[in-house]
Structures are given as structure tokens and as C-alpha cells.
Amino acid sequence: MRILFTGGSGKAGRHAIPYLVEQGHRVTNVDKVKLDIPGVDWLNVELTDAGEVFNACSAYAGFDELEPGTGVPRYDAIVHFAAIPCILIRPDNTTFQINTMSTYNVLDAAVKLGIPKVIFASSETTYGVCFADGELKPDYVPVDEEHPTVPIDSYAMSKVVNEACARSFQARSGIDIYGLRINNVIEPHEYAQNFPEYMKNPDMRRRNFFAYIDARDLGHMVECCLQTDGLGYEVFNVSNDDMSVGLTSDEVIARYYEGVPVKSEMGPNETFYSNAKAKRMVGFQPKHSWRDVLES
């Protein structure tokens, strides 16, 4: 597939793009920073500028595409990961503006240009817990896609707005638009670097539902979505199967979720950020775990 990937030089994208290239896709990375990976095209685009986005989505990816003489090929899909990645980096109103307008522009261009699929990065923060003022417990555990999304911070608000826009663009056009409510992204080197401290102090993982997603498995999730057609608009939690702490699920419930309804029976190491829908609907099967590194 010919794929336009926004934000590919970021923490998640720089692992997802190599995975997609390994699957045989041609990827154009739209980012302010070039990703130095052989075979990956690059375009520097201001995503809050609708004209630049429309042009990027309808442009040649590389000089080789000039050779056939048949005009600009159409992108098969857009993967939109670019964003201000959390609060406290830019002013709140700027974070909201950039994240919402860039997503609107990408969706608008995709629909008007007839690009049949958009996969966009939503967030675990939509459930309101991650950047809450003080401690906020979920309505129930494990948290699935039916859980209310009523956040109070600018970043999570922007993601909820993006989901609403995506649903509306899908209803208008009939194309496939899938939102990924991505949990805390972990790069391979971070297991040895950060997880020993998480084992000592599990309080550090409360705001992430004690969950995580390996950056490589996130690439696999994107590929699952690229290969699954006809779902219309859907959102998916994206997480690994186990927790990011050394406690059992019963111990986490007793220490952190006392009085919180338990929606379904949980295994001893099962994630509190349910990925069951992604497994059921697109065939997601995460393969990596911190246990592979720390327990070896």
C-alpha cells in the first residue's frame, strides 16, 4: 500500500514506520523532522495549514513516481499520528488548536481526495484519568471502549473532539476511519531503563491504568487496521496483554480500585486497559512484554 504517515519521526512513529516498510508498504513520513530510514519518503508539512495538507495528500512521494508518466498516484491510506503529545509542552489553547485543526485537515483532505482509509491516533487520556486534577478512578475495570470519555484537560479534549470529527467525516463519506486509543507507548530500551522503578513504585503507573503498549506492537496494530476493511468508524484501545507493574490484578484492585466495579473476570496479570475489541475485530495480537527483558 502507498501510505501517508504523519508524525512518523515521533516516539511511536519511528517504530511503526519500519514495521510497515517490512510488510512491503511504501511510506511517506510527514513530519518537521526527517526519519533517517532507507526507503522512507519525507515531506515537511504544516498540518494546521489546510492547503499544505491537501497538497501533501495529493503529491508525488518521490522522484521515481515521475517515471511512468501516468500522473500522481493516489494514497491508499493515511496514518495520522502527528500531534502535540501531551499537556505541559505548549499552552493549553495551542495544544487544543494544533491537535484538532491538524486532524480536521487530514480527514477533510482524505475524504475530498477519495483516500479510502484513515487511521488516527486517539488516546488513553480520553477516559479522563490520565491528566485528571487529583486522583480519578475509572467507572469500572477493565476499561473498554464503552467507558465514558469526559476529560478536563486540553490534550484529551482535543482527542475527544477528533473522534467526533472522525465519526462525522465517516458518516459523510463512507470511508473507513479507525481511531486508536493508544496507551502509554514504550520503546524497547525503556524496559531496562524504566520498568525496575515501576516494579518498586507501582503508584507511578496509576494514571496509565497500569498498562502500556510496546511501540513495535503498535506498528502491528496499524498493520491490522490497514488489512481490515469495511468497519466504517471504530475506536480501539491499544495495549499489551499484561500490566506494567509486578502486582497481580487482585492486588491492584485491592490497592487502587477498591469499590470500583469489576466488569469481567480478570487473569492474574491481565491489563486493566482492555484490548479485547482490537483482538476481536482486527486480529491484534501483541507479542512483546517487559517480562521478556526483566525476567531474563
Task: Please specify the SSE layout and strand pairing.
Blueprint (H helix, E strand, L loop, with lengths): L1 E5 L6 H10 L3 E5 L10 E3 L6 H7 L20 E4 L11 H22 L3 E7 L30 H20 L2 E7 L2 E2 L3 H11 L12 E2 H12 L6 E6 L10 H8 L19 H7 L8 H4 L2
Parallel strand pairs: 1-2, 1-4, 2-3, 4-5, 5-6, 6-9, 7-8
Helix pairs in contact: 1-6, 3-4
EC number: 1.1.1.281
Keywords: Oxidoreductase
GO molecular function, one term: GDP-4-dehydro-6-deoxy-D-mannose reductase activity
What does this structure look like?
This protein is α/β, with parallel strands linked by helices and 296 residues long. It has a single domain, classed as 3-Layer(aba) Sandwich (Rossmann fold). The protein is 34% helix and 14% strand. The chain is built from 9 helices and 9 strands. The chain has helices at residues 13-22, 50-56, 92-113, 154-173, 190-200, 215-226, 249-256, 276-282, 291-294, and strands at residues 2-6, 26-30, 41-43, 77-80, 117-123, 176-182, 185-186, 213-214, 233-238. It has a 7-stranded parallel beta sheet, with helices on both faces. The chain has a two-stranded parallel ribbon with strand order 7-8. Strand 4 (77-80), helix 3 (92-113) and strand 5 (117-123) form a beta-alpha-beta unit. The radius of gyration is 19 Å and the shape is globular. The protein starts with a strand and ends with a helix. It is an enzyme of class 1 (oxidoreductase). Its EC number is 1.1.1.281.
